[in-house]
Amino acid sequence: MATKHEQILQHILSLEIGHKISVRQIAKALNVSEGTAYRAIKEAENQGIVSTIERVGTIRIERKKKDNFERLTFAEVIKIVDGQVLGGRQGLHKTLNKFVIGAMQLDAMMRYTEAGSLLIVGNRVQAHELALNEGAAVLITGGFDTNADIKQLADQKQLPVMSTSYDTFTVAAMINRAIYDQLIKKEIVFVGDIYTPYDQSLFLYTKDTLERWYTLNEQSAHTRYPVVDDKARVAGMITSKDIIGKDKNLRVDKIMTKNPNAAQEKTSLAYVAHMMVWEGIEVVPVVDPSNRLKGVVSRQDVLKALQQIQRQPQIGETIDDIVASNLLPVEEDQTVFQALVTPQMTNQLGTLSNGVFTALMTEAGSRLLRYYKKGDLVVENLTVYFLKPVSIESQLLIKPNILEAGRIYAKMDVEVFSGKKMVGKGLLMAQLIDR
C-alpha cells in the first residue's frame, strides 16, 4: 500500500499542467497534515513536476525530459531574472522555443516573433500587444509595468507577461547562461539514469533464511544483496563473507551488515563509482528519502555508463573541459605536459585560480597513468605544498612523477613550472579504476 507521501505525489502527477497547488489545499484534499503535504510538494519540486515562484505560488509543470534541457519554461525564466508576473499566470508552465530581443523597429521585431517565443523588450506597449497576438510571451525590462488591457489579453491567451528590473541585454545574457548551465547538467549522469528498478532487483527480506541467499546467488552470480524490512526499507546488506560457515536456516537479519552505504536517484555516477572503488563493493542499493528500496546499481552498470559517456559528444563546457583541452603533451616527452593560462582559467585578480591549478595537476597525473596503462584515477587526496601566483597568458610546464603505483592505489608528485621557475608542487594520492 502506498504511503501518504506517495499518495500526495501521485495526486500531484494527476493534476493538469498549469494547475496551482497549495499546502493547505493538498492537506485538505487528501486528509493529511500540512507538514506532510509541504514535504511532498518539496519532493515534487525536486522531481521537476512543480515549480514554486515568489508572489505567484506553486504550479504543476511538465517534467523536463533529459533531451529537452536546452529549453526553459516561463516559470524558470521568472526565477532567473528575479521578476514578477503581471498577467497570464496560467501559461507559466509553457516552454519557450527561443527568445527575441526587441531592440529594433516594430515591423522587424514582429518578423522574428512567433508562437512559443519570448519577446524581451522595454516599455513598448504596442510591441507587448503584437507579441501576445502572435502567441509569444513578453518579458518587460527596466522594471516597467504595462497597460491593464495587455494584462487582460495575457490572461485570455494564457501567455505570461513578466517584468524585471534588469536591462534587456543583461536579461538575455542571464537566460543564455541558464540554458548553458542546463546543457552541462544534461551531461552529468545520475544513478537514477542507470540503476536497475525495484521490480527487477534481487533482494532479501529480514525474515528470510540464508537459503534464500544461495537461491539468488545461483540466479545472478552476485554475492551481495540488499536486505529490506516488511515496508521495503533497506535494513542492511548481506555478502558472501557474512554467510561463510553459517547455518542455512539462520535468519538474514542476524548476520547482515546494518546501515549500509546507499545512493539516491540524484547521486552522481562519479560519486557512486568512487564509493564502489573505495569500499570494494559490487552492488549499492538505491533508496528514496525515506530509505525505501527503489532498486540497485551494480559495478557493471557504472562501468557501462562510464564507457557510454566517453563516446558521447560534449555539449556544455565546464572548467575541467577547458583544462583538459588546454593540457597537451610536450612533443619530445609524452610524460610532461604544457598548458596556456587562458582568461577563463583566472580569478578576479587575473592570476591562475587555485581550483584550475589543482585541476591541471590532477589531469596531468591522470594522463600519465593512462600513458603507462595503469587505468583511470579517482583522487583521494591532493596536497599542494608550494604555490605562486601565475599571470594570464603564461605558458605552464607540468611534470607528474609516479612515486608508487599498485593494483588499486597510486601516489604521485606533480611539479608545475612557468618558464624556468617552479610555481607549484603537490602530492597526489588516488584510487585506480581498471580500464
UniProtKB/TrEMBL annotation:
Key words of the record: CBS domain, DNA-binding, Transcription, Transcription regulation
InterPro entries, A to Z: CBS_dom, CBS_dom_sf, Diverse_CBS-Domain, DRTGG, HotDog_dom_sf, Ser_kin/Pase_Hpr-like_N_sf, Thioestr_dom, Tscrpt_reg_HTH_GntR
Pfam families tied to this protein: 4HBT (PF03061), CBS (PF00571), DRTGG (PF07085), GntR (PF00392)
Domain CBS: start-end pairs: 256-314
PANTHER family in the cross-refs: CBS DOMAIN-CONTAINING PROTEIN, CBS DOMAIN-CONTAINING PROTEIN CBSX3, MITOCHONDRIAL
Name of the protein in its database record: DRTGG domain-containing protein
